[in-house]
Amino acid sequence: MAKTSGNKTVKKAPNADKLIAIYMDYVLEHEKTPRSVYKFAKDNEMTEADFYKHFGSFEGLRKAIWDKFFENSMSVMEKAKEYATFDNREKLLTFFYTFFEVLTANRSYVLYVLNEHGQSLKGLDQLKNLRKKIKSYAKTLIQDGNREKSLKLFQQNEMIFSEGVWVQFLFLLKFWMDDNSPAFESTDIAIEKSVNTVFDLFDNTPLERVVDFGKFLWNERMA
């Protein structure tokens, strides 16, 4: 809400969430990223100081958008009472399902920024903070699982597992970007099969799911 000072109306400075919303709308409406903080601020009736209070650059804001996607996903999951009772496999499945629901709600923006420079997903600087968050989440899952195993021999390597989950996320992200199925049903199948595969490999159980997953990827690739 605007404040009135004498005869002059002073517009309330936007908070971080509002800045993110304004930025995402700008990118979608103009089909380009803004060139300068000065012009962006002026076009949206704010000052540069209003922007710099929350972000040091557009780069920082873009990373914060992915942070927000992650935080929103975690918030949705943790509000569900049954989530705390899930085993690690179910928790990771729930995370990916929830995260990609959040991405789908913002699909136009996500597709634009990921395709903007034609970079490989691995090289996208805006995903750096997200990588840390996803790996940290994966480590927490494994730490919980390892505490339940009395023998060190059966404990899982946190570093390898967390890196594997990140690579898995990149694969799923690319899959989702290319998915043309109704309601992105193929992405849901890919999430289920890939998570089951990762846990089967780490639990050293029979690898039928690995073969099944390979067949699924091959069929999707050849379709």
TrEMBL record:
Transmembrane segments: none annotated. Gene3D superfamilies: Tetracycline Repressor, domain 2. Residues 91-217 form the Tetracyclin repressor-like C-terminal domain. It comes from the Bacteria. SUPFAM superfamilies: Tetracyclin repressor-like, C-terminal domain. InterPro entries: Tet_transcr_reg_TetR-rel_C_sf, TetR_C_23. This is AcrR family transcriptional regulator. It comes from Christiangramia gaetbulicola. The lineage of its organism: Bacteria, Pseudomonadati, Bacteroidota, Flavobacteriia, Flavobacteriales.
